[in-house]
Specification:
The chain is an alpha+beta fold. The protein has four helices and seven strands; from the N terminus they run ββαββαβαβαβ.
């Protein structure tokens, strides 16, 4: 092997799944009151999520806590209880509707962030691989020309890939104009490939 080059290819893709982190939180004078209240609020949360079109399989409990809050240790001021869920929203256009439903639970409701992802990365990664390979091949051809030697066959291929940061997406203007406040933007799927060539 006489030439080793690295090529990079990136494809911008619009996420089609939203993961919403939400929950309920209460404070009461006793632990029993606090836990009973948070369980009741969690039941209301489950109900409104179902009414918003979320299937039970797309709701996962990720937090369940109960503990004292101190006015001045060891004096307990109240007991805090919380229950959190991760909600998978499979239709991003319905994100605002689901978020509004959570907020409608009442003063116990909490929204703790969102994350976007692609349900199927295969097609975007395939295109990124093509771009990365072509980038590496062009570099190898240039180096062979500079060295004054003909380029031979590929003898090794190594790949790495991952998500880049979200990129603002102008194509979402229509959603913004319709009143949607949650925008997925686009994510960059990047592939880096290392090619090893022999000289002919």
């Amino acid at each position: 092997m006489d030439i080793t080059v690295i090529g990079e290819g990136a494809v911008l893709a619009e996420p089609d799944i939203l993961r919403l982190h939400a929950g309920v939180e209460v404070r009461r004078a006793s632990a029993a009151e606090s836990f009973a209240a948070v369980r009741a609020a969690a039941a209301r949360l489950s109900q409104v999520l179902g009414q918003a079109g979320i299937e039970p399989r797309d709701v996962t409990t990720v937090e369940l806590s109960l503990g004292p809050e101190y006015e001045a240790y060891p004096k307990v001021a109240a007991y805090r209880a919380a229950q959190g869920v991760e909600v998978v929203v499979r239709d991003v256009s319905q994100a605002d509707r689901v978020i509004d439903a959570v907020a409608g639970v009442g003063e116990e409701a909490r929204l703790n962030g969102v994350a976007f992802e692609l349900s199927d990365q295969a097609a975007a990664l395939a295109e990124a691989r093509v771009r990365a390979f072509r980038d590496a091949a062009a570099k190898a051809a240039q180096y062979a020309e500079l060295a004054g030697r003909p380029l031979g066959r590929v003898v090794s291929v190594n790949e790495e890939h991952g998500f880049g940061p979200p990129v603002p997406m102008r194509a979402n203007l229509m959603a913004a104009e319709s009143g949607g406040s949650v925008q997925p933007g686009r994510q960059a799927l990047t592939v880096r490939v290392r090619l090893g060539y022999d000289f002919a």
